[in-house]
């Protein structure tokens, strides 16, 4: 019996294209169907619908195997040498910008010192576990698993090496399903927690976020070294809080100097991906769970441009 012999009720099902093989022997029908990209509830519903549609005529028993081609996620680590440079804000907005470009995107918020992604994406939903794996929540079109969803910020802060690594593994090994790109918001710094997370997650590339001050750039160089030592390709450096445009007179100034990040990137031999200015409205919107990348102002365009450059670099390193 071939696919052409599908019973009419099965052939007419809107998801009939998912049927990979069909056979009947001794009154037992066997269906193999592709369940890629479906949630477990959708998968169960489809299995029940196929079973009902196949039970006709000589068929007294239906065996169904739902398979899912595992989407290989491309992980991109977002790191910084020091805290407070806007790494989490950047991660949330880049994820949304990538999603708006049609990518299926996830975020792993591994920042045990300040897991802020739930706030940035405006969600308080907690992930559930299915088959011992955490199922990411959806917010602003992005899948999210965060340390902040598992424990209080104070608890995470007190974690030491193995505990932190164990918890972070749970995030990495979550049910990322059809997500193509997963951004990993790393804890700031270059210690053991970062090292073991990088070794475990094996990101396809890393992006470093820095502010223009010399001290931040020195720390950024340490983060660059960390990825270099662990053989993770550096996709480039983003300069955040670069320059300030006065909301009253419109005049631009560079309180922390200008050109430092570009020079640091050049010295380290990595691409400079672009800059984002210091902006009170960006801070207010981000902290209120309204990422500007989801809107259509100049900030959304700036994040989209950074996201495009990241994809270009990713292609170059074969990620
Ligand atoms: N370009 C910007 N202009 C103004 N404020 C910004 C900008 N980028 C980030 N911020 C603000 O700076 C603060 C720190 O940002 P964020 O939490 O993203 O930094 P971080 O590097 O992830 O810090 P940590 O790793 O310590 O949690 C937040 O209040 C955020 O809204």
UniProtKB/TrEMBL annotation:
GO terms for molecular function: 4 iron, 4 sulfur cluster binding; ATP binding; ATP hydrolysis activity; ATP-dependent FeS chaperone activity; metal ion binding. Pfam families: ParA. GO terms for biological process: iron-sulfur cluster assembly. Gene3D superfamilies: P-loop containing nucleotide triphosphate hydrolases. The keyword Nucleus does not apply. InterPro entries: Mrp/NBP35_ATP-bd, NUBPL-like, P-loop_NTPase, YlxH/NBP35. Keywords: ATP-binding, Hydrolase, Iron, Iron-sulfur, Metal-binding, Nucleotide-binding. The keyword ATP-binding applies. It comes from the Bacteria. ATP binds at residues 81-88. Homodimer. Belongs to the Mrp/NBP35 ATP-binding proteins family. Binds and transfers iron-sulfur (Fe-S) clusters to target apoproteins. Can hydrolyze ATP. HAMAP family: Mrp_NBP35 (MF_02040). This is Iron-sulfur cluster carrier protein. It comes from Sphingomonas xanthus.
């Amino acid at each position: 019996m071939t696919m052409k012999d599908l019973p009419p009720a099965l052939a007419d099902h809107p998801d009939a294209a998912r049927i990979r093989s069909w056979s009947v022997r001794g009154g037992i029908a066997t269906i193999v169907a592709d369940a890629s990209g479906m949630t477990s509830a959708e998968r169960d519903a489809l299995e029940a619908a196929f079973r009902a549609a196949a039970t006709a005529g000589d068929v007294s028993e239906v065996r169904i195997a739902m398979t899912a081609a595992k989407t290989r996620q491309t992980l991109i680590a977002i790191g910084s040498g020091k805290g407070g440079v806007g790494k989490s804000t950047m991660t949330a907005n880049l994820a949304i910008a990538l999603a708006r470009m049609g990518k299926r995107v996830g975020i792993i918020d591994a920042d045990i010192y300040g897991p802020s992604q739930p706030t940035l994406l405006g969600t308080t939903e907690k992930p559930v576990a299915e088959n011992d794996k955490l199922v990411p929540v959806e917010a602003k079109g992005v899948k999210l698993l965060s340390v902040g969803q598992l424990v209080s910020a104070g608890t995470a802060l007190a974690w030491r090496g193995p505990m932190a690594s164990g918890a972070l593994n749970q995030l990495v090994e979550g049910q990322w399903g059809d997500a193509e790109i997963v951004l990993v918001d790393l804890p700031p710094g270059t210690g053991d927690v970062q090292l073991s997370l990088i070794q475990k997650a094996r990101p396809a590339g890393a992006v470093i976020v820095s502010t223009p001050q010399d001290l931040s750039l020195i720390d950024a160089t340490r983060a660059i070294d960390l990825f270099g030592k662990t053989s993770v390709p550096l996709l480039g450096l983003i300069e955040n809080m670069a320059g300030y445009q006065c909301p009253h007179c419109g005049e631009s100034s560079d309180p922390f100097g200008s050109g430092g990040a570009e020079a640091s990137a050049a010295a380290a031999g990595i691409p400079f991906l672009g800059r984002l200015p210091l902006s009170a409205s960006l801070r207010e919107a981000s902290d209120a769970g309204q990422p500007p990348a989801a809107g259509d102002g100049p900030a959304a365009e700036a994040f989209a441009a950074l996201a495009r450059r990241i994809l270009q670099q990713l292609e170059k390193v074969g990620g």
